[in-house]
Design goal:
Structural class: alpha/beta
Oligomer: single chain
Order of helices and strands: EHEHEHEHEEEEEEEHHH
Helix content: 25-40%
Shape: elongated
């Protein structure tokens, strides 16, 4: 990454495909806290990516949709075809299970919400140093995987979720039913760290300073010689915007 030449976007990145989760940006925040560059995009935007070479890992976020009444034919096969490591979170796990022939159904009694005790079944690179004697994760879902897709292995389970963590090591595909990005999940950061560093093999390549430089450059490109009116309320968002504008155009 050469900041002197204005190249503020690293050549390697993690992509988060947003399916509408309220905490998708929190996934990105966790990754950026580990000094790795990542981008949040929609599935439509992913369709338009022609060169996947720079993508070292893909995370499928949670979301309000259900795979039990959804046509998955439009799911781009290139997400999985290149063997780029994939991590499905909550809805992302259910999506993976459905695409590869597993079975997902609505929870019969009541949705699983809140902390759940997770139990280890098998070892996985994804869960290295993740489990403690009693480990709790944060659940929030209406659907559950009841039949694991062929070629996948069960890594962990909870009382109400038989397939809480699954993996297909050959295809480099992993799925977790819970939310590792929230603080309610114990050692959730370790699981994300294992995915991006040990499985995706990406190196630290980003800092807040890089983002600042990129934003200032983007403002200069967009504004050009035009004038700008900035409404400053005194809150954090508008204050940051005002500071960036001052740095970019004075």
């Amino acid at each position: 990454m050469d900041l002197k030449n204005n190249r503020t976007i690293p050549s390697q990145r993690i992509i988060i495909i947003d399916f509408g989760s309220q905490v998708t940006k929190l996934i990105a925040r966790r990754i950026r806290e580990m000094k790795v560059f990542c981008e949040v995009i929609t599935l439509t935007q992913f369709y338009k990516i022609k060169d996947l070479h720079s993508i070292r890992g893909i995370i499928l976020s949670g979301g309000p949709a259900t795979v039990t009444n959804q046509d998955l034919k439009n799911m781009p096969i290139k997400i999985f075809a290149k063997k780029i490591p994939v991590l499905g979170i909550c809805y992302g796990l259910q999506l993976i299970a459905s695409v590869f022939g597993g079975k997902v159904q609505k929870v019969k009694k009541k949705r699983e919400f809140g902390k759940a005790l997770i139990r280890k079944k098998n070892n996985s690179l994804l869960t290295k140093n993740f489990f403690k004697k009693n480990s709790f994760v944060w659940m929030s879902h209406n659907d559950v995987v009841v039949k694991m897709p062929k070629g996948f292995k069960k890594i962990a389970y909870t009382k109400d979720s038989t397939f809480t963590i699954i993996e297909n090591k050959t295809r480099n595909i992993y799925g977790v039913q819970f939310h590792p990005e929230v603080t309610h999940t114990e050692n959730g950061k370790i699981l994300i760290k294992n995915f991006i560093f040990s499985i995706c093999g990406i190196k630290k390549n980003w800092s807040p300073k890089d983002q600042k430089i990129k934003l200032i450059r983007d403002i200069k490109d967009q504004v050009g010689n035009n004038k700008v009116i900035c409404a400053l309320s005194g809150g954090v968002d508008s204050s940051v915007v005002a500071q960036l504008l001052n740095k970019a155009i004075g």
